[in-house]
């Protein structure tokens, strides 16, 4: 992974004990599955030639230790999107380095900050992110922050090193600001896992305010619930956006932080089970020895979502503001009114006066991750024989671009009579304009006791115990376009549906109400 921690000074043995053996093991599983050797040319951070540019004097043994530790942080300016390119070493106070490396002081500058590592090597995602940034922003400076020697430690030690790494980045930025053409507003720090908190500490210590920080599944252990000064927070940049992809506890610890820590906090798929990662079968993964790969997949999905936002500009994903994941799963939160929806990853935009805004979306298992969200409101005006067992429904959408697969309706509440039942469905392909909807009752899941009751009812009370629902209308709203449609039952004389049957709906001719997303943003 890069299951990182943040900058807790003095966390030491007490916090290590709190983590526990199980938590430490989970972190080990998620970290250090790197492939490539450490860059050779990203030279060590040199002592500034101009002593005043660092803004600090080193005195005594503690200062000497800090100086030595900071010297283990390296900055490599990548000049090519080619995987494996080492980068040109930058050093504080060394103007010649900027000239030799062709650093563009007026361009956007990205800093990529890795997380905790068990291998001491860069992970494969780093080259993908460098390449995507250089392809999207061709004139930008892309700097890789190499603190591998400080991250390749016990987790608690790596956590304690994050403050030093963050301050070292801040020193570099302060020195760069001596050139009036260099603007902090053009700086974008991108930190993965523990690196997200490093970015926060850099933003906290720099003189001025950084333009943007993106936290890619910031590390949870030793950061959950702590004071904002000890973790990534909205105070660290003009805009702090965060992707949370692994907030579910495994072996007693949440690898990614659960709490919102930015202006905009996005939880793809609720922030826990990511499609294609297989974490739904945790026990099986442990049994087969694959839990490390599963955890890495969940945690690292944040990076791949960010890369996707850079390279697939025609497939931009949108997230929707909601109070919690449960309400989002009900389809309640697909509004774009009053800035309630936003792009994700690189395409996220700052909304003034908002902090800790929680947003949700569904994704595919592979890149491009974009899906198409639909809210469905189904009004049941009569039913018979349901009891306390919920029916199992699916819908098939028929649009101008084709037909969807049957989509399950997740029942989070009991079906209500004379009430609006709301559901969320999503498709991996753009259906275009919806034309028809097929509602199918797949049947009910019954226990042996339920079946026995039905048999007794059949033999001893020969009354009609069939199950039926009467539905006249389904209202649909597209999250991506914000269009609304009303679909009426195709045959007004046939409004009932029972297990194993289907019901067709077509657009209600008197209620063709469309509202474009442009009118709502």
Automatic annotation (TrEMBL):
Ca(2+) binds at residues 231, 236. It comes from the Eukaryota. One of its GO terms (cellular component) is extracellular space. It is found in: Secreted. Its EC number is 3.1.1.3, 3.1.1.32. The active site is at 193 (charge relay system), 217 (charge relay system), 299 (charge relay system). The keyword Hydrolase applies. Keywords: Calcium, Disulfide bond, Glycoprotein, Heparin-binding, Hydrolase, Lipid degradation, Lipid metabolism, Metal-binding, Secreted, Signal. Signal peptide: none annotated. Residues 372-507 form the PLAT domain. Its main location: secreted. One of its GO terms (molecular function) is phospholipase A1 activity. It catalyses: 1,2,3-tri-(9Z-octadecenoyl)-glycerol + H2O = di-(9Z)-octadecenoylglycerol + (9Z)-octadecenoate + H(+); a triacylglycerol + H2O = a diacylglycerol + a fatty acid + H(+); 1,2,3-tributanoylglycerol + H2O = dibutanoylglycerol + butanoate + H(+); 1,2-dihexadecanoyl-sn-glycero-3-phosphocholine + H2O = hexadecanoyl-sn-glycero-3-phosphocholine + hexadecanoate + H(+). GO terms for biological process: lipid catabolic process. The keyword Transferase does not apply. It is an enzyme of class 3 (hydrolase). Exerts both phospholipase and triglyceride lipase activities. More active as a phospholipase than a triglyceride lipase. Hydrolyzes triglycerides, both with short-chain fatty acyl groups (tributyrin) and long-chain fatty acyl groups (triolein) with similar levels of activity toward both types of substrates. Hydrolyzes high density lipoproteins (HDL) more efficiently than other lipoproteins. Belongs to the AB hydrolase superfamily. Lipase family. This is Endothelial lipase. It comes from Geospiza fortis (Medium ground-finch). The lineage of its organism: Eukaryota, Metazoa, Chordata, Craniata, Vertebrata. The gene is LIPG.
